[in-house]
Amino acid sequence: MTSLALEDEARLQYSRILWKNPRTRNRLLFVWEHPEHPHRERFEENRQLVQGLLECPDPQAYVDTVAGADKWSLRTLTREIPAVIWSLWDESKQK
Amino acid sequence: MPRRELKYPAQVEQWLNAWGQKLQNPGEMILIGSGGLLWHAAQKGIASPMSENSMDVDPITQNDEIAELCYDAQIGSLFEKENGWHINLMPNGALDGLPPDWQKRSTKKHYGLLQVEVPAPEDLLAPKIKRGEPRDLAHAQWARYNSLVKV
């Protein structure tokens, strides 16, 4: 696996963990799809790839074989996972 | 808001006790960094504050329920407003900075359904000493002063 900076590794690791649980997945989606999220449109553009990265058993293999190593690296695709903005995350608790 | 941050061993113990009551299912968490040093101090009944305050604690977990609690307590959160410090989830790769076989020397403790594993003080200090920044060295000095590690 290509080594990631700790910040990127944390985003990938914990997004994948929270994505597995339907309830926390809904919280993530509430944040990422929220009209006020600055990267909402970008997420929509790469949604299928991001979703695949979160669900695949091996992220590096996913980048190499599915996403396409000619266009993506594990680092760049990980950075397509939108950040979780706390105010939206807090709001997602009520949904 | 007055500056509070994280400096007293009891703050870590209170936090873990509270989260142990919140968990609905068993979960495990590893605590590294200065939060881990404060944890060791709390186990020894040490009350003296850390010489350099910390703004966060650095846990690592594979558990979704704990990860969610950590997201709820991230920077800018209500948790931070109430406590003066926040949770900074670290990835598994952060453990690579610890000396080999750190798990053989770590300590585990249960808080309700929450199991916390904390590397030995010497292992927690190893990456700090290697980094050698003033705050890291101040933490090492504090640990020595409080007999968490041998001189």
How is this structure best described in words?
The complex is a heterodimer of chains A (95) and B (151). Chain A contains 7 helices and no strands. Chain A has helices at 6-20, 22-32, 40-45, 47-55, 59-68, 74-78, 86-92. The mean pLDDT of chain A is 94. With 151 residues, chain B is an alpha/beta fold. Chain B has helices at residues 9-22, 33-43, 64-72, 78-83, 102-105, 121-131, 134-145; strands at 27-32, 56-61, 86-87, 107-111, 114-118. In chain B, β4 (107-111) and β5 (114-118) form a beta hairpin. The longest helix of chain B has 14 residues, at 9-22. Classes of the chains: A mainly alpha (95), B alpha/beta (151). The A-B interface holds A 3-4, 6, 9-10, 12-14, 17-18, 20-21, 24, 27, 84, 86-87, 89-90, 93 and B 61-64, 67-68, 70-72, 74-78, 89-94.
Provide the descriptors you would attach to this structure in a database record:
heterodimer, A: 95 residues, mainly alpha, 66% helix, B: alpha/beta, 5-stranded mixed β-sheet
How is this structure best summarized?
The complex is a heterodimer of chains A (95) and B (151). Chain A has helices spanning 6-20, 22-32, 40-45, 47-55, 59-68, 74-78, 86-92.
DSSP strand content of chain A: under 5%
Taking the alpha carbons of the first and last residues of chain B, their distance comes to 38 Å
Which regions of chain A have little confidence, pLDDT < 50, spanning 5+ residues?
Answer: none
Mean pLDDT of chain B: 94
The greatest interface here is: A-B, 20 and 20 residues
* Biggest sheet overview of chain B: 5 strands, mixed
Whole-number radius of gyration of chain B? 14 Å
Number of helices of chain B: 7
Report the oligomer. Answer: heterodimer
Note the main sheet of chain A.
none
End-to-end Cα distance of chain A: 37 Å
- Outline of chain B: globular
Q: Would you count the extended β strands of chain A for me?
A: 0
Bulk shape of chain A? globular
